[in-house]
Amino acid sequence: MKLAETLVIVASKSGSTLEPNVPEAIFFEEIRNAVGAEKVGSHFMAITDPGSKMEQAARADGFRNIFYGDPQIGGRFFGTVEVRSGGCCCAGLDTTKLLSEAAKAVEAAKRESAENPAVELGLALGTAANSCRDKLTIFTSPEIYDLGAWLEQLIAESTGKLGKGITPVDREAIGAPEIYGDDRIFVYVRLKGTKDSSQDAKVAAIEAAGHPVIHIEIADLYDIFGQFFTWEVAVTVAGSVMGINPFNQPDVESAKIETRVLTAAYEQTGKLPERKPVLEDRGIKLYATEAYAATLQGDCARSYAGRFLARAP
């Protein structure tokens, strides 16, 4: 990578999330070494919410530009707005066409007839989850392979709460029908004219064996923005069917709070809190709260593990 010719776009609504902050810090240091402290900021742009920590950091470091998102839109529902539009624009893609495809999906999602792909998809996912088919396996054409990674976060964070959830399974090789249980629903997002259609027969075999398969075909790569919007609406509908609020994220927030406590302690002491294992057995250390360990009542690693796995529904 030619760092002196590199532009880094940092997308973070809050600016307090580690996933974008860590690579941003690494790139900032590397580019500063390559171009100098006075020029490094001109190699960075930020997409964030007004008043966020990211905005403060971007101003302090002299970023080239700061673009603002809508604070009312959750991060995982940011698919068709500033984050991806900004990146696509810098990459030289036809953003007018991209947004046009998104607009088509918006209109389709407004239909009151049965031909509403976003609502149909959401009803299928939510109904399947309520019927214990709560594992969504995602297959895609190779050209759109990374779509699954975004779907994974959208679906998991939006539906995983109150003891419920749809578990997305991404990047799994397509197996024979008999290896799958009755807890799965499948979606096959296929690019029309894909260079590799070998998946078609494998997916057809899974469907022929009685597993539910949702087929989605997109005309070209610019339809991806339409998929972003369609899936955002679908997950919202699925959440309604499941009786949960798809827009909040209590588990994510609680994890962030705990992480901030740990990092604050590390900054003060230079080390993370030491945890005492509830059991040490032949080089294996097991950790749990004392209360939970008491429910397992094991006397060796094997018995602990057996009782722990037996509690899984």
Class inferred from helices and paired strands: alpha/beta
Question: Helical element count?
Answer: 11
Largest sheet: 4 strands, parallel
Order of helices and strands: EHEHEHHHEHEEHEHHEEHH
Helix content: 40-55%
Strand order of the largest sheet: 5-4-6-7
**Secondary structure: number of strands:** 9
Uncertain regions spanning at least 5 consecutive residues: none
Tertiary shape = globular
Instruction: State the end-to-end CA separation.
Output: 48 Å
The rounded Rg comes to: 23 Å
What proportion of the residues form beta strands (DSSP E)?
5-15%
Q: What integer is the average pLDDT? A: 90
3D structure, described in words:
With 313 residues, the chain is of the alpha/beta class. Helix content is 46%, strand content 14%. The chain has eleven helices and nine strands. The strands form three sheets. The chain has a four-stranded parallel β-sheet, with helices on both faces. It has a three-stranded parallel β-sheet with strand order 1-2-3, with helices on both faces. Helix 4 runs parallel beside helix 8, helix 5 crosses helix 8 and helix 6 packs parallel to helix 8. The longest helix is centred in the last third of the chain and has 20 residues. The radius of gyration is 23 Å and the shape is globular. The protein starts with 7 loop residues before the first strand and ends with a helix. The mean pLDDT is 90.
Short précis:
The protein has helices spanning 18-35, 53-60, 82-90, 95-109, 117-130, 147-159, 199-208, 224-242, 250-269, 290-296, 301-310; strands at residues 8-11, 44-48, 65-68, 135-140, 167-170, 184-191, 213-218, 279-281, 284-286.
